[in-house]
Design brief:
Layout (H helix, E strand, L loop, with lengths): L1 H21 L3 E4 L1 H19 L6 H16 L7 H23 L19 H20 L14 H20 L2 H18 L2 H5 L4 H24 L2 H20 L10 H15 L18 H26 L6 H18 L8 H17 L4 E4 L5 H40 L3 H10 L1 H4 L3 H13 L3 H14 L3 H13 L3 H14 L5 H12 L3 H13 L7 H18 L14
Antiparallel strand pairs: 1-2
């Protein structure tokens, strides 16, 4: 992220030099630019009203705005070079993923052999899927984005062909249904332009067209059914997330909860849902959720119906843009957007910077290739305006660079703190956590880790203050269990009980919050409640077998042994909080 943001600032400075010093100033403005401007201004103003905190995603949003402005300076004839560069990037990632599968390089996730340079196979597959239609389009349209190279070499076609093979080799290993659906839909968009099926079907009777349509629908339906049946628990988990998110939308329908505040509200909504239905079988597919796994729904939750309508307007206009001269390039960009949109229905591409950068590149290409753009040329009389804008822009770049450097130092301190924290040096980590406080005091992840470190270091008064702050920005199971531990250490058993219960309601399939609750009841002499929770945990269905679960059950047996003499055969109806 920091590399991207610094690079964008440098590109912005170079763009200013090009625009205001070395060349006459020409500003082109398309309808796409106008719609995107309205959407971006709405997002930022709505966020200001909701007092959204500083976050990585917000900084990326600013960076992507800069990226769009920079890419809009590309000439229409040069858009092919941008798309070819994206293909080369995906080829490098696909080869890197293959080398991980073959054991030459380690994965960045302990549970998967392949992740590319991403943190797990899902975003990696999404990134490859977002560029697949570009690769396919360059290959089948025989586009040569490098006119200075002899056409006989057919270099672009070779690169595209090799990249297609490389992507198709690693994509199945990712096991990403969303990525496969994105590839299928975006590829169909390209193939339908290259091979006009509609014109071909016109040659045949309505009966034959109907049979073909039914066959196609049957194949698509069977494919979708097969994809949904694959990893059923994952699909059911996403259905639960969507159901809970819809309740967030119902509570904040018009303007949402604010940009990047989904995780500020979601786990509390999920806790409320399971508090009303504690015995729901959906508890077994619940998780500690930061993303909605449907970007359109998450965008609505964060920015309301107004934000969703503006987003849909952007997509609708993007597909309406035409240009006969660059029709193939336009459709490649449209197919890229289509693939990302399909992936966004089942995953979280708006959280993945490289995929977002690809989307911005497609939008910039479409806007550049659009016909009927307005053009504003500075004349000598307007020189003062030009130079005022230049000075203003340089000032913004300097301010952004200084503040970004401050934020980067704070994040480095956080990184040092976290490394010490994970090694068990809790007291030593606190010095680094404190250094990042002034900049990161509204970052929920930072506050969670800082509060947990204070809790483990035995500084419970401070831990409670930090963890209560964390609850405002990122309520989660770790925060509430740590709060419960600190309240328990201060002999505030009532508050500890409520914190543990809140953690359990967030994800009822978890054993640990109820285990802590049973220990609290046992240590405070609440025998009946301790027996009830211990019995519940011994009879509870296990989602994932582990040594920790075995240890928890062993502890629960000791509690029953203590109060009843023998835990064997003891059954008790699940105890519910008053």
């Amino acid at each position: 992220m920091f590399f991207f943001l610094y690079l964008i600032l440098v590109a912005g400075l170079l763009l200013l030099l090009k625009t205001f010093v070395f060349f006459p100033t020409r500003i082109q403005f398309s309808k796409m630019d106008g719609i995107l401007l309205i959407w971006a201004v709405y997002i930022l103003l709505n966020g200001l009203i909701h007092q959204i905190p500083l976050s990585n995603r917000l900084l990326e949003f600013y960076g992507l705005i800069f990226l769009y402005i920079v890419l809009r300076q590309i000439e229409p004839s040069k858009c092919g070079i941008l798309l070819a560069a994206m293909v080369i990037g995906s080829a490098i990632q696909a080869i890197y993923g293959s080398l991980q599968l073959w054991g030459f390089y380690p994965s960045h996730h302990s549970l998967f052999k392949m992740s590319g340079s991403f943190f797990n196979p899902g975003p990696f597959a999404g990134y490859l899927a977002s560029i697949f239609p570009v690769t396919l389009g360059l290959y089948i349209f025989k586009i040569n984005p490098f006119p200075i190279i002899d056409k006989k070499l057919d270099l672009a076609n070779w690169i595209a062909g090799i990249t297609l093979i490389a992507i198709l080799m690693v994509l199945p290993a990712s096991q990403s249904r969303a990525a496969w659906m994105a590839v299928i839909v975006s590829s169909l968009m390209i193939l339908m332009i290259r091979y006009p099926v509609g014109l071909w079907l016109k040659k045949y009777s309505w009966l034959k067209r109907g049979i073909v349509l039914l066959l196609v629908c049957g194949i698509i339906g069977a494919s979708l059914f097969g994809l949904l049946r694959f990893k059923t628990d994952s699909a059911n988990g996403r259905l639960l997330i969507w159901k809970v998110t819809l309740s967030m939308v119902a509570n904040h329908p018009l303007t949402g909860v604010g940009f990047d505040r989904f995780k500020t509200f979601y786990m509390n909504e999920q806790a409320g849902y399971f508090e009303q239905t504690p015995d729901s079988p959906e508890a077994m597919v619940a998780g500690d959720t930061n993303y909605c796994f449907n970007e359109f729904l998450q965008h609505t939750a964060e920015n309301g119906l107004i934000g969703l309508l503006l987003l849909l307007a952007i997509l609708a206009y993007a597909f309406r843009v035409t240009n006969k001269r660059f029709n193939n390039l336009l459709w490649i960009a449209k197919a890229g957007i289509g693939g990302i949109a399909v992936f966004a229905l089942f995953s979280y591409p708006a959280q993945i910077l490289p995929i977002k950068a690809n989307l911005i590149a497609y939008l910039a290409c479409i806007s550049t290739l659009a016909e009927g753009k307005k053009e504003w040329i500075f004349i000598k009389k307007q020189a003062p305006i030009k130079y005022t804008l230049a000075v203003f822009s340089v000032g913004i770049i300097i301010i952004c660079t200084v503040n970004l450097s401050i934020y980067r130092v704070a994040c480095n301190n956080w990184k040092q703190a976290y490394q010490l924290h994970t090694r068990g040096y809790y007291a030593e980590s606190l010095n680094y956590y404190e250094k990042g406080w002034s900049v990161l005091k509204t970052n929920g992840d930072y506050l969670t880790q800082y509060g947990k470190a204070l809790n483990l270091a035995g500084k419970h008064e401070q831990a409670i203050k930090i963890l209560q702050q964390a609850v405002k920005y990122f309520p989660n199971i770790v925060v509430y269990t740590a709060l419960g531990d600190s309240y328990k250490a201060q002999e505030k058993s009532g508050k500890a009980e409520q914190a543990y219960l809140r953690a359990w309601y967030m994800n009822p399939s978890r054993f640990y919050p109820k285990y802590l609750l049973a220990k609290l009841y046992d240590e405070t002499g609440q025998a009946e409640k301790a027996i009830a929770i211990a019995t519940e945990l011994l009879n509870k269905e296990v989602k994932i077998e582990s040594t920790a679960i075995d240890e928890i059950k062993a502890e629960m047996k000791k509690i029953l042994q203590k109060y009843l003499g023998s835990p064997v055969g003891f059954k008790l109806q699940k105890w519910r909080s008053p």
